[in-house]
Amino acid sequence: MAPKYKLSYFPIMGLAEPIRFLLSYGKIEFEDERFESDQWASVKPSTPFGQAPVLEIDGKKTWQSVAICRYLGKLVGLAGANDWENLQIDMAVDTISDIRSKIASYGYEADPALKEKKKAAVVNEALPFLLTRLDKLVKDNGGYLANGKLSWADLYFVGILGYTNYVSGLDLTKDYSNLSALKNKVLEIPAIKEWVAKRPKTER
Amino acid sequence: MAPKYKLSYFPIMGLAEPIRFLLSYGKIEFEDERFESDQWASVKPSTPFGQAPVLEIDGKKTWQSVAICRYLGKLVGLAGANDWENLQIDMAVDTISDIRSKIASYGYEADPALKEKKKAAVVNEALPFLLTRLDKLVKDNGGYLANGKLSWADLYFVGILGYTNYVSGLDLTKDYSNLSALKNKVLEIPAIKEWVAKRPKTER
User: Fold this and answer.
1) Where are the alpha helices (DSSP H) in A29-64?
2) Is A128 at the interface with chain B, CB within 8 A?
3) Using an 8 Å Cβ cutoff, are B96 and B69 in contact?
4) Are the beta carbons of B20 and B199 closer than 8 angstroms?
5) Which residues of B touch A50 (CB under 8 A)?
6) CA-nearest residue of chain A to B83?
7) pLDDT (tens digit, 9 = 90+) per residue, B31-66?
């Protein structure tokens, strides 16, 4: 019997969307449980480490969205062909996490003046530096993040864009032609296109 | 012929020490290049994404310390036996990264008053929450972070402790008996003991 998948997360794309992309890509049915923010206090203690998303696989709770995506990537045929290829995928994904973390460093700052100051440093320095290199990585890999072929890193990157764009207040791929092309390519994959068409519409 | 490994990093344990642990565990010879902080401006442009450590493998530059550790973990026989076991390892490692990131959120704050405020929240709330759960994870896994046996997650955790303890200003495992026991167990592995005895002595 096929394993049962239940995803629990806030009612947003956020960190769960790459997981939804990968499950959709693999045509794996899953329960897409979305709890409201005011329910989080009661949900949190039932999570393994006080974090969401949680993906239950046959009742076993897994957490950490990147770890889950690596597992699902392998399952749906989007891992590398060998250890070296998997290293290339992992390096790209962890670089995307660094970009996310730079964005979060100002995106969640409550003090408006401090936020603007932090934002300026990230938007003028860190982001152009990292995105220029990421764009070149895609160029050097024939339009993909790693190994010259589609991998779970590509679905991860495009899956999390809704969130990173929202938190950053930017359209992150706009000025980067290879990243833009990659985004469009992933969104044209029939199973992803179908998911995006039917998913709940949320702003982030 | 065996591949050639060259590690480049600041003259500290830092994020490179888990890589040094894994190479040492596998009895893999490596060049341990350490550049001074004032050389960083000239080293940075030669790194793939402006970050260190960089591990050159037969002249090919790899970056992202966790990705490198996963690759080396597989190479030295410390990966999981299957995809599910690898997921358990990855979840533990990413949880350790979250702990590191909480610590860094105050450890690198330049404003002393703000640093104390941030530190209080992390030390009184986030760290006890995460470390209590991590300690229980080790208890539930027979003294290891995953799968009831030694994995690269354990070497990663102990390898990065020198750094996380320094940045946090705390002895992170002190009040957690299962984490303390794991630390001692890893440091008693002959190849790790040998490395620790001969490595350059640094404060972090």
Assistant:
1) 40-43
2) no
3) no
4) yes
5) 129-130, 133
6) A71
7) 999 999 999 999 999 999 999 999 999 999 999 999
CB–CB contact A49 B95 (8 Å): yes
Q: How far apart are CA A167 and CA A169, in angstroms?
A: 6
Question: What would the pLDDT profile of A101-160 be if each residue is shown by its tens digit?
Answer: 999 989 888 889 989 999 999 999 999 999 999 999 999 999 999 999 999 999 999 999
What 3-state DSSP class applies to B6? Answer: strand
**Is the CB of A49 inside 8 Å of chain B's CB atoms?**
yes
- B146 inside 8 A of chain A by CB: no
Looking at chain B, which residue has its C-alpha nearest residue A68?
Answer: B87
Eight-class DSSP state of A16: G
Instruction: Please report which confidence band the pLDDT of residue B162 belongs to, taking 50, 70 and 90 as the band edges.
Output: very high
Could you give the CA distance from residue A80 to residue A154 in angstroms, rounded to a whole number?
12
Structural domains in chain A, CATH included, are 5-76+191-198 (3.40.30.10), 83-188 (1.20.1050.10)
Does the beta-carbon distance from B63 to A91 stay under 8 Å? yes
For residue A53, what are its two tokens? 């998303």
- The complex's ipTM works out to 0.97
- How far apart are the CA of B111 and the nearest CA of chain A, in angstroms? 12
